[in-house]
Amino acid sequence: MPLLSATLNRVKPSPTIAMTNLALEMKAAGRDVIGLSAGEPDFDTPDHIKAAAKRAIDDGRTKYTAVDGIPELKQAIRDKFRRENGLDYDATQISVGTGGKQVLFNALTATLDPGDEVIVPAPYWVSYPDMVLLAGGMPVVVECGIESGFKMTPAQLEAAITPKTKWLIFNSPSNPTGAGYTREELKGLTDVLMRHPHVWVMSDDMYEHLVFDGFEFTTPAQVEPGLYDRTLTVNGVSKAYSMTGWRIGYAGGPAELIAGMRKVQSQSTSNPCSISQWAAVEALNGRQDFLDDFRLAFARRRDMVVRMLNAAEGVTCPTPDGAFYVYPSITGCIGKTAPGGTVITDDQTFATALLEQSGVAVVFGAAFGLSPNFRVSYATSDAALTDACTRIQTFCADLR
């Protein structure tokens, strides 16, 4: 009898974490490595949020809490959804988990049966398909190429829906591309969904506040109120508030679904960290002015990275609408040979050779379901980005 389950053998470790760990190992060995693989803002958590966590510790708020969130945080989340998205939820419709990833996982675990299908537009966040597999479902990947701005069309969505479809996982702005759906583009998708009442919508809005150039963020249940009763709207404080390590994600959705997610969480992690919950209350209720500073810094970095990568031979880099990623194509590099002798057969060999020869860590596109591309996270300093992009230019120029 094998030790590991057949279910576990269906999934693979996170490639983004694997690349980040490899870069750290090379740094520890004395190599000059610039890591562009981790999706984590380099800004510190704002002081007023840290102060709220310190007050929570001093006030003894260090005990178990309700499984899926303290009432004060649920109220802050309800206020946020109403204020920013026009969505009204009561407390029974709010779930708080240990990061957005747990919230998504809880929902899939609570709802999927063997044979259920989940539509996953690609490029996708690396964890979506594997979470579906772990929950017993089957991911149905829809490739959305550079020609469509990495966005799924209504025709593609219509073609992917079958009687077995349970969920559509929707992410805008996207990890890994930064592509955002306009209100009109999103309305095209929600019109399709309204014709298929058995399909639920899982909207991952984690990068809602990180949008540029006047882009207007909208979420499915906001654009189409008819989807309210079958939409789980997921968000968190990790990215916009630079609180990745605090591990707080949340969602609003139908009470029956939220109750199922609560049951899953009660038998896995139980409550999220009590101190982090109080910090999240302050993040959502407190001053928001620092978000403008974050956005301006990310927009400046985006423009510089896009410009420099487009100057690299064989690379085409679209300009994203939000998040802090770019997803350049390396079509012009395929088939060439690096100075070390490596033939660039795909984006994985490109990323590996780039790391080994130039000391720049990126994530290869196959990890996100669409090749030949690679993902750059520009959530690091301007100096590091300039150095890294210069190295990428040199690496590409040396391909023969």
TrEMBL record:
GO biological process, one term: amino acid metabolic process
SUPFAM superfamilies reported for this sequence: PLP-dependent transferases
Names of required cofactors: pyridoxal 5'-phosphate
Catalytic reaction(s) noted: L-aspartate + 2-oxoglutarate = oxaloacetate + L-glutamate
E.C. designation(s): 2.6.1.-
UniProt enzyme class: transferase
GO molecular function: L-aspartate:2-oxoglutarate aminotransferase activity; pyridoxal phosphate binding
Superkingdom per UniProt: Bacteria
Coiled coil: none
Annotated ranges, domain Aminotransferase class I/classII large: 32-392
Cross-referenced InterPro entries: Aminotransferase_I/II_large (IPR004839), AspAT/PAT-like (IPR050596), NHTrfase_class1_PyrdxlP-BS (IPR004838), PyrdxlP-dep_Trfase (IPR015424), PyrdxlP-dep_Trfase_major (IPR015421), PyrdxlP-dep_Trfase_small (IPR015422)
Keywords, alphabetical: Aminotransferase, Pyridoxal phosphate, Transferase
Gene3D superfamilies per UniProt: Aspartate Aminotransferase, domain 1 (3.90.1150.10), Type I PLP-dependent aspartate aminotransferase-like (Major domain) (3.40.640.10)
Homology family: Belongs to the class-I pyridoxal-phosphate-dependent aminotransferase family.
Subunit structure: Homodimer.
PANTHER family membership: ASPARTATE AMINOTRANSFERASE (PTHR46383)
Name recorded for this polypeptide: Aminotransferase
Originating species: Tranquillimonas alkanivorans
